[in-house]
């Protein structure tokens, strides 16, 4: 958990950089922009003033988007912007994949443009 906490600034930097890259599909850029708007919006599915549970919707939505990004954007593009090691990116991908596991793959394919799929 501590490692994930320290990975958050790296992840934010990578997501912002990906949103400006020409190699990233437009659908993925729209998902990234939608996540950013949702996270800064005062309107949430679960109000943030509820202790602990209030940030759950933000966490789940972020995990879904991160899982989609690491699975449907070419790995060299991801590594171009990831400031850590490839192993640390794999760990972040594993955590986000566990949180987003309940989202059907076809939904992620549709959102992220059906780019590269991670080998199972």
Short description:
With 120 residues, this protein is mainly α. The chain has helices spanning 2-18, 26-40, 56-72, 75-81, 86-99, 105-112.
Helix-strand blueprint:
Layout: H1 2-18, H2 26-40, H3 56-72, H4 75-81, H5 86-99, H6 105-112
Number of helices: 6
Largest sheet: none
Indicate the overall shape. Answer: globular
Helical content (DSSP H or I, runs of 4+): 55-70%
Topology pattern, helix = H, strand = E: HHHHHH
Radius of gyration: 14 Å
Structural overview:
This protein is an all-alpha fold and about 120 residues long. It has one domain (about 1-110). The chain has 6 helices and no strands. The model has no long low-confidence stretch (mean pLDDT about 85).
